[in-house]
């Protein structure tokens, strides 16, 4: 709010009301006075009768009047302070405020200092909110926030969800609305005939995706606590599951604050125990609805495991062959699951792979054409998928599992051996299955993780040691993926691993080292990028101190700033010591990301041009080619106006952190003067 406007309202609160008197107090001319009063009347603060101004008879004016008598209301509301004030109705971090307001860090910090000086906020860890003991202050902020949310929104709209980038709203069917149809309003177009009394619209810059339609419907149903509507959302998912990316669904659900509900949906489909069971219809009612909508039971009932499979394989193999069993069939054999969708097998050499493939074909299996792979199939990248009309599907891997973990000597040693004639089958340990599921994050994996941990004699230390060993063997960072899985597990079951804090420290070490590799970065900037959830400012400072003691980084004082700099040329995440053609690697990664996200030819072409510019300027020296390529794709989507592909989505596709992508994006943009 304009400081002069605040002074005018304070003067009226003090009993001044005549136009001439107010103009004299404010030392402003008639034109400026008329402009200010018109705006304040439009904002519902006051009315005018002849030349006399009084507060309106409404809650907003009354709250302002009371608050102005208690605190320095000018410090509370001047300029951008008002915008920050009404964003503190719920506990938020500084980063949250930056995201929702687009204000600079310096502006927010200045505002917080003023708020602290008048005692209107409280801090708990890294989160800030209005002091709830000041009820009128909270109500005033809530009212301002509601007004802001409803600005430029149809008067007849019911807002279901709103943030800086999107508005989801319910609209009467006889009314028009800004945005495009979504949620239940589009179900008919995708094979589910479900009628609602209202239409649902989403207003956002990016193109609407199928995964978003699903999550919008689930959000609407959850807000209304409508079990029937939640069931319809599940049927929509089952009908269109092969067209969707399960990781995209989870990310979108998390962005709308309903990841816990979505994990329960995954469990409900697989008939697993649920955290929020009251949200769902009884199983028999769900199955009846599925039949009515022609949803075949194969889509929500896992096939009965075929106990003879490995005996049959062992009898038909041409020679002695060794393989390792992981995934759902591994859990079924241990009594941790009744049924499983597929049977995951990994072998260590071409000979075993050929023997198994040919034997499965002899048993009536057929190899699935890669053109028919789902998004999830492509993501886990098996060497082959074989299907049978009466038996579980078989996913075959060679050495590397789901493009991530390798079949290490320690995994092989821990496995229990079962002999089926010529087949020597190693049954991987529960700890190794837990780690594998933690880095692949497929549908139902969170429920499986819970079952494994609670199976008895589970050794968390083995999981931790193998994680470190795998990162050493592959020179890849799996810690961030495991941390994400453990967060999901905790949200759903309250199970917390004993190495959780160590894992956060390891993830922080990776992220800090990548942020400062081959450049200096302000300490405050690192803190703001990495802080949030369970990661506090104190933890980040402690890790930087640790890295300094280990001589990986150094602190440099420049004026008022403390800069962090890598002390060695490359400190962590060295993916290869072999010389590489950076241009070729980067272009290949751009091609892969373009195919994965189905980017337009225009975006892909522009990204490839940026690769040439980056290499020509030598920006790639000492940096990971795939990291730079990922940042370039993100930059290309922004420049070409496709805002759907967020840094979070693009970073996850490359197994990189969001802060790293942001840092590389800024580096490329600055270096190329874009």
Question: What's a concise summary of this model?
Answer:
By secondary structure, this protein is an alpha+beta fold.
Description:
With 674 residues, the protein is an alpha+beta fold. Helix content is 51%, strand content 13%. The strands form six sheets. The protein has a seven-stranded mixed sheet. Helix 21 (445-453) packs across helix 23 (479-493). It is globular. The two termini are 34 Å apart.
Poorly predicted tracts of residues: 569-580
Main pleated-sheet profile:
7 strands, mixed
Mean pLDDT level: 86
Please bin the fraction of helical residues: 40-55%
Helical run tally: 31
Specify the structural class: alpha+beta
Shape: globular
Q: What is the CA–CA distance across the termini? A: 34 Å
Give me the count of strands.
20
User: Widest sheet: strand order?
Assistant: 11-12-13-10-9-17-16
Please state the oligomeric state of the protein chains shown: single chain
Report the sheet-strand fraction: 5-15%
Backbone CA Rg: 29 Å
């Amino acid at each position: 709010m304009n400081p002069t406007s605040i002074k005018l309202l304070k003067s009226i609160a003090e009993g001044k009301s005549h136009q001439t008197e107010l103009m004299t107090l404010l030392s402003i001319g008639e034109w400026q006075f008329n402009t200010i009063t018109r705006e304040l009347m439009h904002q519902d603060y006051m009315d005018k009768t002849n030349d006399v101004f009084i507060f309106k008879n409404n809650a907003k004016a009354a709250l302002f009047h009371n608050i102005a008598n208690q605190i320095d209301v000018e410090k509370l509301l001047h300029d951008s302070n008002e915008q920050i004030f009404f964003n503190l109705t719920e506990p938020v971090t500084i980063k949250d405020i930056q995201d929702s307001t687009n204000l600079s860090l310096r502006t927010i910090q200045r505002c917080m200092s003023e708020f602290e000086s008048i005692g209107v906020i409280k801090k708990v860890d890294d989160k800030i909110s209005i002091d709830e003991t000041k009820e009128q202050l909270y109500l005033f902020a809530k009212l301002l926030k509601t007004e802001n949310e409803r600005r430029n929104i149809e008067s007849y709209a019911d807002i279901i969800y709103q943030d800086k980038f999107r508005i989801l709203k319910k609209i009467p069917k006889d009314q028009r609305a800004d945005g495009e149809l979504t949620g239940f309003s589009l179900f008919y177009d995708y094979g589910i005939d479900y009628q609602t009394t209202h239409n649902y619209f989403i207003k956002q810059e990016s193109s609407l995706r199928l995964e978003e339609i699903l999550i919008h419907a689930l959000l609407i149903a959850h807000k209304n606590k409508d079990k029937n509507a939640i069931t319809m959302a599940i049927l929509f998912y089952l009908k269109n599951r092969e067209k969707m990316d399960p990781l995209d669904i989870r990310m979108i659900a998390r962005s709308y604050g309903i990841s816990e509900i979505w994990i329960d949906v995954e469990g409900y489909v697989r008939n697993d125990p649920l955290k929020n069971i009251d949200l769902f219809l009884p199983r028999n009612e769900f199955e009846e609805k599925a039949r009515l909508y022609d949803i075949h039971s194969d889509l929500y009932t896992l096939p009965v495991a075929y106990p003879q499979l490995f005996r049959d394989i062992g009898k038909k193999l041409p020679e002695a062959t060794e393989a390792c069993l992981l995934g759902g069939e591994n859990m079924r054999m241990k009594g941790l699951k009744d049924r499983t969708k597929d049977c995951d097998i990994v072998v260590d050499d071409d000979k075993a792979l050929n023997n198994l493939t040919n034997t499965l074909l002899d048993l009536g299996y057929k190899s699935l054409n890669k053109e028919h792979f789902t998004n999830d199939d492509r993501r886990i990248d098996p060497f082959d998928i074989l299907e049978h009309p009466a038996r579980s599907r078989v996913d075959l891997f060679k050495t590397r599992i789901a493009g991530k973990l390798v079949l290490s000597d320690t995994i092989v040693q821990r496995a229990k051996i079962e002999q089926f004639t010529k087949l020597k089958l190693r049954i991987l340990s529960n700890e190794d299955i837990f780690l594998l599921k933690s880095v692949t994050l497929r549908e139902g994996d969170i429920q499986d993780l819970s079952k494994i941990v609670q199976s008895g004699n589970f050794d968390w230390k083995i999981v931790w040691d193998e994680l470190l060993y795998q990162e050493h063997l592959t020179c890849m960072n799996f810690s961030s993926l495991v941390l994400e899985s453990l967060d999901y597990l905790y949200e759903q079951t309250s199970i917390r691993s004993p190495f959780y804090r160590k894992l956060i420290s390891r993830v922080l070490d990776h992220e800090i080292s990548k942020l400062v590799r081959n450049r200096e970065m302000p300490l405050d900037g690192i803190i703001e990028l990495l802080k949030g959830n369970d990661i506090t400012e104190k933890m980040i400072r402690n890790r930087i101190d640790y890295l300094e003691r280990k001589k990986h980084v150094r602190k440099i004082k420049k004026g008022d700033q403390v800069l962090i700099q890598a002390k060695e040329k490359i400190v962590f995440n060295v993916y290869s010591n072999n010389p590489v053609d950076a241009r070729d690697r980067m272009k290949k990664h751009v091609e892969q990301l373009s195919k994965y996200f189905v980017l337009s030819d225009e975006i892909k072409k522009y990204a490839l041009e940026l690769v040439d510019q980056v290499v020509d300027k030598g920006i790639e020296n000492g940096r990971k080619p795939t990291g730079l390529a990922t940042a370039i794709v993100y930059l290309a989507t922004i420049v070409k106006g496709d805002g759907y592909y967020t840094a979070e989505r693009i970073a996850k596709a490359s197994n990189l952190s969001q802060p790293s992508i942001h840092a590389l994006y800024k580096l490329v943009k600055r270096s190329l003067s874009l």
